[in-house]
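hey so u asked for the seq, here:
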Amino acid sequence: MKIKAVLFDLDGTLLPMDQEVFTKAYFKGLAAKLAPRGYEPKQLIDAIWGGTKAMIKNPGGKSNEERFWEFFSGIYGDKAREDEPHFEEFYKTDFQKIKDVCGYDPRAAKIVHKLKEAGIRTALATNPIFPAIATESRMRWAGLEPEDFELYTTYENSCHSKPNPEYYKAILAQMNLTAQECLMVGNDVGDDMVAKDIGMKVFLLTDCLINHKNADISALPQGDFDALGEYIDSLLD
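ran it, structure tokens below
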């Protein structure tokens, strides 16, 4: 069966980055922004991590946004929701500086645009632990626009996270596709390649490879953007 859609991860895939460097810069910027509001940096970072884990473990029923703020408010009380505009302001301003620690590969946007021109549907299957404003910014850092994707997952519109297979099933339901009609492209063996367990084809982009459990990846289609282009061409023939 020919593929009808390609799902792309963002961080480390369309947007080259060292995940640890990105995370460090993100927390440093957020802590500096919120320090004047009375947030002690270490406690804030621990609370953000806790909220992130709540989203990753989200069993459904509530959005990831709701799961995050429930956890965060459990630590800081009503003050947390009152300060939400300051978080949004961070994403509009200081967060944009984090682009400097990320890479850029023009082949990322090129391959997305080529797929669209060929009539292949595209979705941005980035782990939905960020608000839309942050996800849209990172897309643009990669040379892309929200309009380049039929769907992109954010913490507002998602009730599951990677590596939960339900995350991928939700995308399929929204796009009215079967797993066999899709290719998932990502750099994280644990988060992205799990899509094959529900029947999707997968491609492991190895430029910023993440393989925390040192899984055997020898059988996976893999390589750089050039290899990805060749693999997609083989699926469309």
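The chain has a mean pLDDT of 97. Residues 6 and 183 are 5 Å apart (CA to CA).
lmk if thats what u needed
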